Amino acid sequence: MKTKSWLLSGTLLLAACGTANISTENKTQEQTSAPTEQAVTYHVEAIPEVMSIAEGIDLYNDHGNMEMLARKYGYKTVKDYAIYRLDKYEAMLYKNCRLPKKMGNSGYEDAPLPQAKGVSSYVSVGNTIQMAVFNNKAYENLVEQIKGLGFSLQEEGYEDRYSNGTIDIYIYKEKRLFRIEKTL
């Protein structure tokens, strides 16, 4: 009887050792074969009422096409737009929005405010490009455009930062605001 229990104990011990080795090997294989994250690009149909992210990047690189884009999307333009004690832009393009109260010669009280009809949006042109929409469907479409262009999420937080290595796009979810600038 003692012989059988020794055999049984020995068999269990060997089986346990063999199982541990197999699972260790599997874990190492899984770790080495983990896919590396690569930028995936895909086509996202842009909403026709709002400037696309690709056009926003083009506008960032060359402000010369601002008038053409304003005509294409039906944006009204205000040159030298300043937000009182906050920021100053070369121009503000806005559509289905109303301008806030003007604070004397110092600028406007805030960015353009949405109206009830149509898809409200604005684009500020300066050292950075800021695009804002006041519609969830348009916001989600712009986020998908960013991902579709091969930008990858670099940081999550107050603003989510997407980058392609040369351009960063910051998304402020609360205001549905997109800021395009060069990577530092």
Please give a structural write-up.
The longest helix is centred in the N-terminal third of the chain and has 31 residues, at 2-32. This protein has helices at residues 2-32, 53-61, 66-73, 136-148, and strands at 76-83, 87-95, 97-98, 113-114, 121-125, 129-133, 152-155, 160-163, 167-172, 177-182. With 184 residues, it is α+β, with helices and mostly antiparallel strands.
Using the CA coordinates, give the radius of gyration.
Answer: 27 Å
Annotation, overall tally of beta strands: 10
Class by SSE composition? alpha+beta
Mean pLDDT: 83
List its salient traits.
single chain, 184 residues, eight-stranded antiparallel beta sheet, two-stranded antiparallel sheet, globular
